[in-house]
Specification:
The protein is an alpha/beta fold. It has 18 helices and 19 strands. It folds into three domains: 233 residues, Rossmann fold (3-Layer(aba) Sandwich); 204 residues, Nucleotidyltransferase, domain 5 (2-Layer Sandwich), CATH 3.30.420; 31 residues, no CATH class.
């Protein structure tokens, strides 16, 4: 056994096969293995679902078992992430390993530090980035440092890691920021290559897009790697040209940390479309709703009440003089005119909005929906708050290249089963171009365009986040009332 371990000293792929008894690494994981053996620093900047966690768990166990008295220091954004992802994958390695692990293994997802101990001092320790300074007294001849989700890690964490005097450093993550230490290391790799810096001192950076997954063309990956179904779903959700796809699928370093939410050419395109006359029985009429952004009564702020359906904006009432009673009366009038159900009305519930239900109740409206932009989104894994989620729905609705999913008819389903079906033909829906988003005429439109122009979004880890509203208002010099009402309306879209 000892002889075999010595044989695997510089062969993590062989160790994975002989001792961990796991499926072999795929080609880009093999590239990472070679890099860790040869280079002092390895940076893996990649898309999602390429097997990073599977690979790094194997590397940590390989390092410990092939180097007596070795030490691994692993840091990530939180103890929960380390415990539920990295150390969970390490436990799987050890559970299926040919070698019997008789050491100490910490239990609990939030154990701090997370520990894998073969013998005193011969161990792996996991610290969150907020407590990584606690590792400063840890030193060993064979020290492997691992930084998880490194793109979002602050410089002081890398300073703490540098003080360890590591033998090898591995940084892995999505390139979600345009600058920072993670990006600096990627650029350093280019310089080291150009200057022929010897590997024992050099940084090596490896880019792995999700589209290079060995299962990218399969309908479903049995190993949880990026597959065609997942890729197509993410393209639909975020748009191929979005920051999210750039960072989390294409593994591209963004040019900027924030990107314009709404392309103004989309607005221009939709504003030139003429809404057709529809019969009262048309299905789109059942999607009518009202969104109300209430003014605080200061400066250039206005109360904006907007009537919409899934095809666009039907009417807008904008007033810098309307108080709560006037706003409630206007909503009542619009409800009657457009036949909007009371439970399809939304309004700002914070600030002066706390008293608004009393004014609506005087008109018999008691089921309107209070809205708080900082509230919990329906998809909390993708968006930091409800306002961002609604803003993203608006982006997708206005994006002239975005495709809409429509449920297939029974005939289409039967035809999709004939011949050799593609992945998309097997899905229960088909992708079709969206209808235009029509804007009714009115002075509000110029203000809407001006308000949407500076609105940007960025990434916070794997989540999308809109520019904070107070920052947006500062840029404009007033509250973005029209754009806010339009975004708010998307929670019922």
């Amino acid at each position: 056994m000892t002889k075999l371990l010595r044989l695997c000293h510089n062969e993590p792929e062989l160790f994975n096969k002989l001792f961990l008894n796991r499926p072999p690494y795929w080609s880009r994981q093999m590239d990472l293995c070679r890099s860790v053996v040869e280079y002092r620093t390895t940076v893996a900047y990649s898309g999602n679902m390429v097997g990073k966690d599977y690979w790094i768990a194997g590397i940590i166990v390989w390092w410990l078992f092939t180097r007596p008295d070795a030490l691994c220091i692993i840091t990530g954004p939180s103890q929960m992430v380390l415990g539920s992802v990295t150390f969970k994958e390490i436990r799987r390695c050890l559970d299926g390993a040919v070698l019997r692990f008789g050491g100490k293994l910490s239990s609990g997802l939030k154990a701090s530090p997370a520990v894998i101990e073969i013998a005193p001092g011969w161990q792996a320790l996991g610290f969150s980035t907020t407590s990584v300074e606690r590792s400063s007294g840890q030193h060993a001849k064979h020290l492997l440092a691992v930084v998880e989700e490194a793109s979002g890690v602050e410089d002081f964490v890398f300073d703490a890691i540098d003080s360890l005097g590591y033998e090898r450093l591995v940084c892995i993550g999505n390139p979600i920021r345009a600058e920072g230490k993670f990006v600096d290391l990627i650029r350093q790799a280019d310089r080291d290559r150009a200057d022929n810096v010897p590997p024992r001192l050099a940084v090596n950076a490896i880019r792995i897009p999700s589209t290079e997954s060995p299962h990218a063309h399969r309908e479903k990956s049995e190993f949880g790697l990026a597959d065609r179904t997942w890729l197509e779903s993410m393209y639909r959700k975020y748009g191929k040209g979005s920051l999210w796809v750039g960072s989390h699928i294409d593994a591209r370093i963004p040019d900027v940390d924030a990107e314009q939410l709404i392309d103004l050419t989309w607005l221009d395109h939709h504003s030139k479309q003429q809404r057709p006359q529809l019969p009262l029985t048309h299905p789109v009429n059942s999607t009518r709703r009202i969104a109300c952004d209430l003014a605080e009564g200061v400066g250039r702020d206005s109360t904006c009440i907007m009537v919409l359906d899934d095809w666009g904006v039907l009417e807008v009432v904008l007033s810098n003089a309307a108080g709560l009673p006037e706003a409630a009366a206007t909503i009542h009038r619009l409800v009657t005119r457009w036949n909007v159900p009371h439970d399809k009305i939304t309004f700002d519930k914070l600030g002066i909005g706390r008293n608004f239900p009393n004014h609506l109740a005087r008109h018999g409206i008691t089921t309107a929906i209070p809205y708080a932009g900082e509230g919990r989104p329906q998809d909390p894994s993708s968006y930091v708050n409800l306002r961002t989620e609604a803003g993203w729905k608006l982006r997708n609705r206005l994006d002239t290249t975005h495709m809409k999913a429509e449920v297939k008819s029974q005939k289409e389903k039967r035809e999709g089963r004939s011949g050799r079906p593609s992945t998309l033909s097997l899905l229960p829906f088909s992708l079709v171009p969206q209808a235009p988003f029509y804007f009714c005429p009115g002075e509000y439109y110029v203000r809407l365009v001006d308000e949407l122009r500076p609105l940007t979004y960025g990434l916070v880890g794997r989540k999308t986040k809109l520019m904070p509203k107070d920052e947006w208002a500062t840029i404009l010099g007033h509250s973005p009332d029209v754009a806010d009402a339009l975004i708010q309306s998307m929670i019922l879209a």
